[in-house]
Amino acid sequence: MLLDLWLPLIAIAGGFVGLLWSADRFVAGSAALAYNLGVSKLVIGLTIVSFGTSAPEIVVSFSASFAQAGELAVGNALGSNLANMGLVLAVTALIAPLAIHRHLLRNEIPVLLLVTALAGVLLYDARLVFWEGLILLLALPLALGFLTWNRRQDRTEQTPDIPGLGNVAAGVWFLVGLAVLIAASEALVWGASELALSLGVTPLVVGLTVIAVGTSLPELAASVTSALKGHQDMAIGNIVGSNVFNLLAVMAIPALIPQAPMESAVFWRDFAAMGIMTAILAAALVLDYALRRRQGRVRQACLGRSIGVLLLLGYIGYYAWLMLG
Predict the structure, then answer these.
(1) Where are the domains of the chain?
(2) Alpha carbons 247 and 254: distance in angstroms, whole number
(3) Could you tell me which residues are beta bridge partners of residue 302?
(4) Has this prediction a pTM greater than 0.70?
(5) If one looks up domain 2-324 in CATH, what number appears?
(6) 3-state secondary structure of 99
(7) Residues 163-189, buried b or exposed e (16+ Cβ, 10 A)?
(8) Which residues, in sequence order, are CB contacts of 119 under 8 Å at separation 6+?
(9) DSSP state of 213
(10) Residue 54 CB-half CA count within 13 A
(11) Rounded to whole angstroms, how far apart are CA atoms 254 and 232?
(12) What is the per-residue pLDDT across 237-275, written as a single tens digit (0 to 9) for each?
């Protein structure tokens, strides 16, 4: 039994390391190329940088879909969103309160709630077909366009640091990062599929747990590092952007490649848990902002440790439900 597990475990570990390393290089090269071509830092932050934190999930979704492991891809999308809120945001909030900006409540949160509702409607029958995948993909540029236009109106909006790379160096890092991303995702999907077969669990559960947490490590590392350095202002916005990408891009990919129907639990258990946690996060942000505004302390509105504990407990409770079920 152990002999059957060691090779998949090595593939999973190697895949995670490759994804973490290559995603950073891929984003750096892409951002530098775009900036050298005259794209503004704001647009780069909303598109390339946001895409970069979801790049592991997207590439893994492609690999899983072509390997006819669509459940693993969908589980990865839903599980990553749960991990982003219940693990990344929760842990970051426990380290330092996360600032709540007005544009977050007016723009990003409504978009996330609408996207979550759309994904729920399409996933209700526990399967995603081609036209449903197209709807999700077509909604992505609409969501990004709306957020970009509104962010341009916000003078307080922060922009990302763009690496100072020439076109050749940026192009090399872009290609190297993309190649390693693809290779690492192939190793990860193979290892996860073999592990699921060896342990007698479904690819959906592996996607919701091992793969989801692993592909959320870039967000966790970036958010915790920013919090420790006192630069946690953009943490909530980055997580919201990543969740939108996961639902509209990552979850759309297996729909474009014919897959077998999924377990009904993918909606009634996994999507429901993600939807509830999304609603809790949105309600906490709105209530905290509204209460502090009534007290005349709008600038101090934040996602604090109490909400961080609530999100973390909810995430632990979901895992208990998943394992006991």
Answers:
(1) 2-324
(2) 12
(3) 99
(4) yes
(5) 1.20.1420.30
(6) strand
(7) eebeeeebbebbeebbebbebbbbbbb
(8) 136, 247, 248, 251, 271
(9) H
(10) 31
(11) 34
(12) 778 888 998 899 989 988 888 777 788 889 999 999 999
> 107-126: per-residue pLDDT in tens?
889 999 999 999 999 999 98
Q: Does pLDDT of 44 surpass 70?
A: no
d(CA 7, CA 11): 6
Higher per-residue confidence, 270 vs 38: 270
The two tokens of residue 312 are 């973390």
Helices (H) and strands (E) in the chain, counts: 17, 2
Q: Quick one: pLDDT band at residue 286, thresholds 50, 70, 90?
A: confident
| Least-confidence region, from 100-109, 169-178, 293-302 | 293-302
Tell me the C-alpha distance between 123 and 20, whole Å. 29
Strands 302-303 and 98-99: antiparallel
Q: 39 — phi, psi (to 5°)?
A: -80, 140
- Give me 107's structure tokens: 């723009």
Q: What is the Cα–Cα distance from 53 to 314, expressed in whole angstroms?
A: 23
